[in-house]
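SEQUENCE WITH STRUCTURE:
===
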Amino acid sequence: MKKVSFAEFGGPEVLDLVGAEEPHAGPGQIRIAVRAAGVNPVDWRIREGQFQQAHPLELPAGVGQDAAGVVDEIGEGVTGFAIGDAVFGEGSSTYAEFAVLSAWAPMPDGLAFEEAAGYPSVVETALRIIDQVGARPGHTLLVSGASGGVGSAVLQIARERGITVIGTAGAANQDYLRSLGALATTYGEGWVERVRRLGRVDAALDLAGSGVIAELVELTEDPQRVITIADLGAPEFGVRFSGVAGSMPDALGAAADLIARGKLHIPVEKTYTLAEAAAAHVDSQAGHTRGRRVIVV
């Protein structure tokens, strides 16, 4: 089979499309014929070696954790699923023709594979950080870097919970944020005052890692009311870095429910082939995403 792999840490150029042995489902796992794989910032952070000290990775290594596809192998102990079922979920080395999933759920009705592949990690992350930051109904939550996949999920989940959201993004994405129910403003010079004019901030999330932690602490007046998923230097300000995933099965169930009720939709901004994985990483690292980037197999 074909898979995307890297043999050394570095820039997008270290990614290669290689021939590899097919993986097989172990106990409690399934294997899918991958139809699409989500592109997440954590993918290129791992490729750069950013987490090597905390979570050592043996090279060469595959890339990707989110995918949607068709079940073609079922591991011991797995019940309720059959060969040919369409599923979405989380696994390892998902930029490939076949991948093993450790958490999965039936693909929601009406979704294309490329859409479904964009949900697992971003919904799990959104649910986790909204809870960790303590945002409650009636609160106002500031989301810095709100137009990407996680931001899109946060805005819609918060709206469903009765939380007001102020989102920052580039000028081109202001209408997009408003379409998701957020009060929108641009980042850049004067952004703190623009946020203040929109309302009091009870809690804040940093999704972009753009060096705004000190300002988020200033706006919330409490570092414990700020969470980041992108700024590894945030603990210097007393701010928590949220990097340990919660329950993916619960997140997939929540995503399916929200999608079915019309409360969650994350658009796919751009698709790529396996051979274009490096380009997908370049675009992901550049930011300014509206929704998701997905590799289609």
User: Anything to note?
Assistant: DSSP finds nine helices and 15 strands in the chain. The chain has two domains: 2-118+267-296, 123-241. The first strand starts at residue 2 and ends at 6. The mean pLDDT is 95.
